[in-house]
Amino acid sequence: MGLGKMMDFTFMFIVITTLVILNFSPLAFSTYVNLTAILSAPNVPFISFLNLLQKENVIEILQTQANAQTGLTLFAPDNAAIYGNKVPWGNLSAAQQQSLLLFHALPQYFGNTLSDLNTLCQLSPVTTMAGGQYTLNITSVLGAFYLNVSGSSSAQLLGAVKLTTYPTEVYQIDKVLMPEAIFAYSYGVSMAPQSFMLQNFY
Question: Name one GO biological process term (predicted).
């Protein structure tokens, strides 16, 4: 075989191999994730959280990450959590409000499986999209998963939204996460551990 033919064969082999890898990649089968549509869907209790994301221009950041190669994991406080936590938004700067909202997101996909959630527990503390000083501890107690901000503040992971598609996962949580990097004191009392089974909602 001549040198020219060998080079042609090598080139074709590389092209075919690349196409095969792309065709069998999970991202090749993924569809565009519209985060706004997911958070505003009927019977999904995240409209208050979405309004905050839009008001502080954070939704665009999360939307881009939702379709990035590494994906997005979003811990979305439900409407009751937004109204019940009494976050002093008016006392926070625009930068602090953005950081607080980005504190609810991880720049990596962790799906609604016990394996992925247990991996999150093992990796804790994990850095959120708010930056290096904004970390979360994910723990499991008697089958329940908690997002711990400090010793006396935690939110329970209630379940995942069925409308989400790879590479994005949206989990419902029962409290707004209050990062210590912004708030110098603790908020609320952590919930007592309860028996919990992973669920898909909506």
Answer: plant-type secondary cell wall biogenesis
pLDDT for 150 beyond 90 = no
Q: What is the pLDDT of residues 50-94, one digit of tens each?
A: 999 999 999 999 999 999 999 999 999 999 999 887 788 889 999
* Pairing mode of beta strands 126-128, 105-106: unpaired
181 burial via Cβ count (<10 Å: 0-12, 13-18, 19+): middle
CA 73 to each of CA 8, 96, 116, 165: distance values in angstroms, whole numbers, following the listed order: 44, 21, 11, 11
On whether residue 134 sits in a domain, the answer given is yes
Query: What is the domain extent for residue 88?
Result: 35-182
d(CA 200, CA 44): 12
Question: DSSP letters along 113-160, please?
Answer: SHHHHHHHHHH-SEEETTEEEEEEEEEEETTEEEEEEETTEEEEEEEE
Residue 124 to residue 139: CA distance in whole angstroms:
8
Give the separation between CA 182 and CA 131, rounded to whole angstroms.
12
Q: H or E segment at 10?
A: helix 3-23
Domain count for the chain, please give it.
1
Q: Phi and psi at residue 26, in whole multiples of 5°? A: -55, -35
Would the pLDDT of 113 be above 80? yes
